[in-house]
């Protein structure tokens, strides 16, 4: 291959924005020529690598735009520590069939039991499957909707939150919500009803949601739409944060005792 042809290939790769192929071309072609690889196999390899890189880049961009507070995976979740959770049910959710079926998921439990971890993990998988995904804390959501309402942009903001294939609303019930906030929340749930999937986390049992939303009628209307097509996962167990705190204190005590013994 002449140098002019090779430079033209590299220039065209730049024009086509095939960055990965441009990166691996030199070493791969040298090996392919040495191994007498035919042209079809060369093209197959280069195009497959380029497609894989573009897919990985797209997934990474999707995850970045999803607003996750941190990155957590199901592999990092300690199912042994929370035996009340059915691992089989969680792994079934990981197939994303519930997203295709436009079902909701609600994680209930006291603070620290892993609700947000599981919600974020499923959101990460959804993003990897190229579903438009977005995470938002409930208090921040209501703040944004209230702001849009006062700026006369409510319908625009509701449309924005309604468009996501998977919307994660975290920490329902941690902070009180007034009647206007409850009404705005209901409008969003109504817009997403039977159209897209929403994942919720809450530290409040459903029987207490009338207190969360300041009105039993609104709470009932919200729950009716959420639970119509929904999987509810109630987590009964100890807090991971308390567990980590206890382990840290235990390790600290061990170190202190060791130092005292060494000094005596």
TrEMBL record:
Gene3D superfamilies: P-loop containing nucleotide triphosphate hydrolases
Any matching Pfam family: IstB_IS21
SUPFAM superfamilies recorded: P-loop containing nucleoside triphosphate hydrolases (SSF52540)
UniProt xrefs under InterPro entries: AAA+_ATPase, DNAC/IstB-like, IstB, IstB_ATP-bd, P-loop_NTPase
GO terms assigned for molecular function: ATP binding
Domain AAA+ ATPase, residue spans: 101-234
Keyword field: ATP-binding, Nucleotide-binding
Keyword check for Mitochondrion: no
GO term, biological process aspect, one: DNA replication
Family, similarity comment: Belongs to the IS21/IS1162 putative ATP-binding protein family.
PANTHER family found in the cross-reference section: ATP-BINDING PROTEIN RV3427C IN INSERTION SEQUENCE-RELATED, CHROMOSOMAL REPLICATION INITIATOR PROTEIN DNAA
Name of the featured protein: AAA+ ATPase domain-containing protein
